[in-house]
Design a protein that fits this description.
It is a single chain. By secondary structure, this protein is of the alpha/beta class. Among the domains are: about 5-30 and about 175-245, Rossmann fold, CATH 3.40.50.11750; about 65-170 and about 255-300, HypD, alpha/beta domain 2 (Rossmann fold). Helix content is about 40%, strand content about 15%. Strands 2-1-7-8-9 form a five-stranded parallel sheet. Strands 4-3-5-6 form a four-stranded parallel sheet, sandwiched between helices. Strand 11 (about 275) and strand 12 (about 280-285) form a beta hairpin. The longest helix is centred in the middle third of the chain and has 17 residues, at about 225-240. The protein is globular. It binds iron/sulfur cluster (SF4).
Length: about 375
Amino acid sequence: MKYIREFRDPSLAKELIKEIRRECNGATYRIMEICGGHTHAFYRFGLVDLLHPHIELLHGPGCPVCVLPTGRLDQAIALSQQDTVLLATYGDMIRVPGTMGSLATAAATGSDVRIVYSPIDALRLAEAHPDKKVVFFAIGFETTAPATAVTLLHARERSVRNFFVFCNHVRLIPAMRALLDSPQTVLDGFIGPGHVSTVIGAVAWEGIVKDYGKGVVISGFEPLDLLQAVWMLVRQLKSGQPRVEVQYTRSVRYNGNPVALSLMDQVFEVRETFEWRGLGWIPDSGFKIAAHLSDWDAEVQFSIQEMPSREPKGCLCGDVLRGVKKPWECPLFDNPCSPERPIGACMVSSEGACAAVYHHARHSHFVRRKLSKTSR
Ligand code: SF4
């Protein structure tokens, strides 16, 4: 397939691997890939094996479904149980276990829960069902926040008064700061997320380099993208001059996407604090809907009780999201936790680290060795 095959060329991949090994020269670098899409690509294309033992990959808090704490999910489930509410959200959210079941189990017991591919689909549902209060359960980083923002502006323009947004959008950079402030975080540099950075720009990472001395290379999602990004990062680390570099130049601009940033500015305000699974409450890390759009804000228009977050018993998602534990170190991995019967969010989402290891373990001697050592 044109424009895909070029990024999966095996001979170029071999050259890059050779170069990475040569640059590492016997050393092992601990690199965190923040984005769940990158985590899956590293496993799916067998790059974890090819980079071992020169590169140890740590999986970061970049899976949007995984980082949402159970308290916010429980609030969405409670909302879906209110009379006349139709709750719309992305497919990945439906099976994530909350404290007392998931949105799927709520649907099975009478809630009207629908999967949508974009917030605009949720707005269309509101227009098609004037008898319903359609709540869009909005999750995700700065990647998906602009789509929610533009949908809210459409709702206002079209005077759709039965459409609401339960806003759970989060901001990545404050979470990265919280992660780096933790003494448990020991790493050499980051593979930066391509999609979030397309919106916020490479410039957003400058503070991480300046304040923490960690290098960042923003990468695309194909195997050659990732290998080139690792190679660039290793060279940076060896030079002792951390900086922000962009490998994914076909998408990421230094100042980001001005249209998307302006839409977010018009629609959102920064929350004082927001809770993350595994990272706790982080100042300035969430968006809420601006006061001038409160007619469409589910948190203002519905009574939504605060709910405490509780991890499922034995689940190590919080540690996995901070890069402190690997999925295979969780005693519940594979038995009983699996994509069919997930116990934690990291096993549900198509961007979750546990799901990545589970789905792609058969391609990886490295993972199979790790799993056999934990005697499963
Ligand atoms: S394997 Fe399952 S229970 Fe363990 S950390 Fe991952 S999602 Fe949680």
